[in-house]
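Fresh eyes needed here. Have a critical look at this protein's tokenised backbone.
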Amino acid sequence: MREIHEKVCRTHIGSQVLANKIARAGYYYPTLKKDCTGFVKRLPSVMVSNNDIQFTSQLVLEFYAQLGVKQKFTFIKHPQSNKQAESANKIILQGLRRRLEEAKDRWTEELPQNEEEIMTNLDLLQDVKEIAHVKEVAAKARAAQ
């Protein structure tokens, strides 16, 4: 999961896309979507904030230190001054270029892969429906008491 999320893709994808990529790689199991959601929604390793006093207080610094989170500061009026916008755009463009280069002149070959991804989404959707049904039944049972 970490390999696909951080190293292979380098774009820190969301839980749905991560689950799709893992399933396409042949590693499907019933709690895949839930596990991917839990993995993606963990604490970040770096918190970026402005230099306001609520973010620079000793209490906040100690809290971040306890969690092992690094703190970086930016100027809220000029986020481009710390190159964050350029860095994010560069990563997105790299991913797009890589994908387009791989698929150049092969759109007819790419269509089955797209259909496979749609089917993976549908497979995961069934799991989501089943979980929602179980939660609904449990909620109705609690309400009946």
The chain has seven helices and two strands. The chain has two domains: 1-42+110-145, 44-102. Residues 44-102 form one domain. Residues 107-144 form the longest helix (38 residues).
